[in-house]
């Protein structure tokens, strides 16, 4: 076991010092693109200002004979694009694949100064993070990087879910964790072929009431996993995310699933198509009226101790903390999004009348 004193020391001579706290940057949507697709890559400069995170995908959806082209395409896109305040991430291939090592060697050496986060698929335990952690340190030292590249894990196997707490605390590099519902469903032998979202067969039925029809209510297949992931992330100071919603045309269900994740504590979700960007932006940004209410509570509570009555409702230190979360997120997002800043200011002004 490593000494706690060594946890924040670089794992390679010349590597940048690990971060002591994960910086919270807006990441409401992690928007995937195929960097080996020239038509898609050409849209990246125009797309960058619209999203919080752009992710060059090297894994699923990239055929085996296109892996090298996708990797080279990501290097080219990263070198030629001004991302502004938008983060650049990548999802490498799984660690047991023939491509993962070359993914990391090529990307850190070629665009490590532009790459914010490496997403690692099918993480099954802290040992996977330890391997990537050490390798990244060696590559950072070789490339002369001044800041560490962070790591994001995807929960896609039953083993990963069972070890989620250990994964979340495996390294100072850990930025966050995403739910990977499709692979996880296969790993668990779940009987659904959907990518995220619910299933009409997963339901509860009301008890009999004479001859009246018995109403059914569809339930959320992913509630347990998301809640456990959120707790693990919160306990270790990293960020939880909902993964993909595969039915691009069903924008209503996509919005519902994203909102469920937001309410449970997730800070963002993957977007696979431009139509999902606006959904994620809306859902993972606190509503203006909620922000205005939170600021009223904070102002009335002063130092956050005691209790006050606002509009006939008691507010105490617990609600004060909740309101700090909402208001803090709103301030962070408003600094990046002028439209959102204007909406928050207008709601705050209306609440004070």
Which terms would index this structure?
two-stranded antiparallel sheet, eight-stranded parallel beta barrel, globular
Structure in a nutshell:
By secondary structure, the protein is an alpha/beta fold. The chain is built from 14 helices and twelve strands.
Please explain how this structure is put together:
The model has no long low-confidence stretch (mean pLDDT 93). The chain is globular and about 60 Å long. The protein is 44% helix and 15% strand. It starts with 28 loop residues before the first strand and ends with a helix. Helix 4 links the parallel strand 3 (87-91) and strand 4. The chain is built from 14 helices and twelve strands. By secondary structure, it is of the alpha/beta class.
Tally of individual helices: 14
The arrangement of helices and strands along the chain is: EHHEHEHEHEHHEHEEHEHEHHEEHH
Task: Report Rg.
Answer: 22 Å
Instruction: Bin the strand percentage.
Output: 15-25%
Write the layout of secondary structure elements.
Layout: E1 29-33, H1 38-42, H2 44-47, E2 53-57, H3 67-80, E3 87-91, H4 100-111, E4 117-120, H5 126-143, E5 150-155, H6 158-162, H7 164-168, E6 174-179, H8 181-188, E7 203-205, E8 216-218, H9 223-235, E9 239-242, H10 251-264, E10 268-271, H11 274-283, H12 288-301, E11 307-310, E12 313-316, H13 317-336, H14 338-351
Parallel strand pairs: 1-2, 1-10, 2-3, 3-4, 4-5, 5-6, 6-9, 9-10
Antiparallel strand pairs: 7-8, 11-12
